[in-house]
Amino acid sequence: MTSPAKPRVLMCPTDHFGVEYVINPWMQGQIGRVDRDRAARQWNQLRSTLSELAEVEVIDPGERLPDMVFTANAGLLLDDVFVPSNFRVPERDGEVPLFNRWFADRGYKIVELPRDQPFEGEGDALFHPGQPLLWAGYGVRSGIEAHPTLTDIFNVEVVSLRLVDQRFYHLDTCFYPLPDGRAVYFPAAFDERSLSEIRKRVPADKRIEVGEDDAMHFTCNCVRLGDTLVTNYAGQDLQQRLNAWGYTVRCTTVDEFLLAGGAAKCLTLLLQQDLGPDPKSRPKFTSPVRTRRVQMAGHLLDHGTLNKAMDLTIDAGLGCGVENFSPGERSDQHTRATLRVTSPSAERMDDVISELMKMGAQPLDDLADAELVEVVKDGVAPDDFYSTTIYPTDIRVGGNWARCTAQRMDAMVVVDPGSTPPTARCALMRDLKVGDRVVTGITGVRVKTPDLRRDDEAFSFMSSSVSSERRVEQTVETLAWEIKRIKQRGGKVAVVAGPVVVHTGGGRHLERLIRAGFIDVLLTGNALPTHDIELNLYGTSLGMDLKRGIGVHGGHKHHLKAINLVRRAGSIKQAVEQGVITGGVMHACVEHDVNYVLAGSIRDDGPLPDTEMDLVKAQHAYAEAIKGCDMVLMLSSMLHAIGTGNMTPAGVKLVCVDISPAVVTKLADRGSVESVGIVTDVGLLLNLLAGRLCEA
Length: 696
Ligand code: ARG
Prior knowledge:
By secondary structure, this protein is α/β, with parallel strands linked by helices. The protein is built from 20 helices and 35 strands.
């Protein structure tokens, strides 16, 4: 495994080394603390160790360039081509011309990267010895944007590895490739996708995953010369494993450089690489990295939309840049920006772009028709199906845009390109039929998200905190006003409610609202009607006397007796008609012709004859019932409320009331901006609302 010619490396003396600024976590608290004599002694020791095995060349250090000792960051070279670094950090920019001159003077061809592609040289890019493969780090210092350019310059396969721990900010702090397809690395420094890229190429018996102790002592920051590994530190265990692979490990302390976040490898740049067979016999490599642009417009700053979009992109492991940023001049004007998104794979790209589309972004480079794939098995979507949002969606078919019908979230889009004009509709997975043509990917899809005005924000989900009394009163006032307006224009209001409405004494207020004609649809399960009828018959709700707030002897059976009576009558309606039920929410529904749908669940007693226990049928009945509703009041019900939220298009106002902030937040996750969440007791809220609406 010894390379033929004596290797050459480049080092830079420590005359100006120090910690004078903080550009990585290791430097924190270390400004002015470097012992330069000690550093010099350690550097000389490293140099003499390396000199035994390699030819060490030296570049003159530049004044006021305390990090220039870390020559690994000069750039990356292969044969006679030198690609200088494009430092993300301005502190190190001054090194670039000095290194460039050194390489130019020695006849290297200097190939520069575009300015908007940050890249920090061999610190973030390691050729795999003996293979046409470049491991390239990104995410902290270097950007993934540089990777396709490196693929083209060197014609090698570039594997993009995302660094997720600021302490391992350069790839050479946590990854070290060895000949024969081996590698040593610290897994916690990478995201899942990167780990699987590594494991795909380096089989289990050829990789060593080092532990925290080794990693923190920069063990991976290692220089291999033939079969000798020179590093700052390696624990017993690791040394033994490396010995078993035929390596001699030589630890030479460079801990003074750890104060600046560097060690042995950072202090050297390899002047030769061995990528195996003749480069001319290599196939042409193309980069899997893709870049797309999306346009965003709206109150991007006021609402933090731009931040959210960038966070989302970066958290997903993609590169992100902003172009053509133009803020509105006044607070009520829109900001425009183009977001440039760079992804290690096409699939990730689609996922992120479709998330961005939910935030209102429009893909720019995309004037192609949607990609349609035929369903080959009933109820099964093609892989990579587009999944819908609540917002109006257009699909590009034959060069024209078709507006989706039956808009709802979490559905697929079925296109009929044959009809004139072509049509598009949302369809549930289970309703897909063989031959349906389903939109896949995100090409040719446009989503129209609303843009909140700044003052609308007060009326959106207050996700996590309990609403104050004043706040509840105010919200109820606005709510009452909106409901009145909906009713005045002949609109419809639906209520989704859970049994807590009855337990908290809110039943009689809901009943008042129904009798006064404010509610058109009641969506619930088996429990609310059961306890409502129980209350009407026995004065208890789940055995509790609601007037006195105490348990009643034998009360635990009351709800079963209530169910039994309704079952005997045949249905709730028949029980009302036969005079078995004389008041309450369900009685009011029957008398006032309110459409009620009861969707069952696994915990139901009985059930009541009206409860639909076939959930597919129940979902369908809910969806039919909310058609044309302008508002849905969700009252202390989690599953039924979420189920309803899922089938409701944008433009329908959702009002979610629950005592548990978590439930309100869950509903808010649906992402509808025109909705409101109130964390309070539902009985209290209904009391206030009925007071406002029914007594006025
Ligand atoms: N202080 C330097 C920086 O943060 C250390 C560079 C270490 N070099 C390396 N190849 N990891 O840029």
